[in-house]
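Re: Re: token formats

Sure, here are both.
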Amino acid sequence: MPAPVNSSTHCAQGTAGQGRTARARSRRRWHVVVAIAAIVAGVALVGGCDDAAVDGAPAQVVDPSAFPSAAPVSTSVVAPQSVAPPATTVATRAASPDASAAVAQLDTLAVKGRAPKTGYDRDLFGQAWTDDVNVEGGHNGCDTRNDILRRDLTAIVYKTGSNECAVRTGTLADPYTGTTIAFTRGQSTSSAVQIDHVVALSDAWQKGAQQLTPAQRADFANDPRNLQATDGPINQQKSDGDAATWLPPNKAYRCTYVARQVAVKAAYTLWVTQAEKDAIARTLTACGAAAPAPTTPAADTAQTPTTTAPPIAATTTPALPPTYSPPPQPAYTPPAAVGSDSSVYYPNCAAVRAAGADPILAGDPGYSSKLDRDGDGIACE
């Protein structure tokens, strides 16, 4: 048996021998030596001495499948994933559609100073709470005051025999004060709930109503859009104030209140003062509406707006409220004078009730202001 060979020594000897052979052959074919050297170097890198031919022994063939293949290296560039930032809630105050519409409608109203109050009289707006009008609720057999009570009150009990017209009791959720008021019909209790003209009659008289016909003024005074049941003392406190001098104590209702004023004034082609328009605009912008364009006073045509918004043409017709269409105006017949029928006379409400004539409306036979203690146009309630 041959003696064992030291692998490292044997490898070194084999390699040296190969080198001598390569140098000898290089004298004849140097390019062959270069190729052989390249092959030897490659074999040494891959498998060491065991993979080369030593002393004429055949080189071992290495099966690549015997080694686990390395995972291929991808040459593509992977873009970093885009990480969405956490959602952030941004507090925004969207404009109320009603407030925005009211501001747009406010810009259609003429801006002028107050006309003199000279000649104003309540009777210029027709009989108090007459049913003979051409607005919603007119000619329905029930006076306007009771129409509004029926609309604004809940838990209503009607007076027997009134064909569900005369409200005897009910509950009012008063929007002006934000309080609840119990209503009981009676000479000393009816005044706890009164009917307010959202645009006061005196205010309307000084801002265009003088140019309306008597029938139009009667419509104005009985238009449900211009009427609101409210607390009696609050109604007295308001008197004939406009938005520049009075707003409801309940701040939550102020936007609706001034929007109703704008709609009514637009419907009847009334104007506003500059102070009134400013007060309405402030109220509506607090509700999220955009501020109206600066106003060019009607009396000062030389003044020009400082806004980039186009001015409203002089011929612009005021927009009407969605539910209001001015009816054709019939020939106006003045109401009968109060107490004109002298053939009917009641000394007191007991006599009225005994005759089954209660309540008596202003203008009805036998009506007298002495029988109407609360002055609401309805005697012997």
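Second one below.
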Amino acid sequence: MNDATPKPKLTVTRWVFAVTGILIMLFTGGCTAYAVLMLTGDELGESLVSSIGYVLPYGLIPFLAGLLIWWLAVKSGR
């Protein structure tokens, strides 16, 4: 079960893409979470649902793109 051949190390180009994907996820995910928290204020209910509905598409799509870039950089070719 234990494969004796080690996995190849990440090249510089793959490291650059992996870090780029992580930064995209960090900034889009963080900004989306911050925007949702600021839009909701202290109230919960309909304002929370409408806030998520407006903000999530703008943050979720880039977050998923960053996740895909990171995943391809780390897992591709291994």
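The first helix runs from residue 12 to 40. Helices lie at 12-40, 46-75.
- S.
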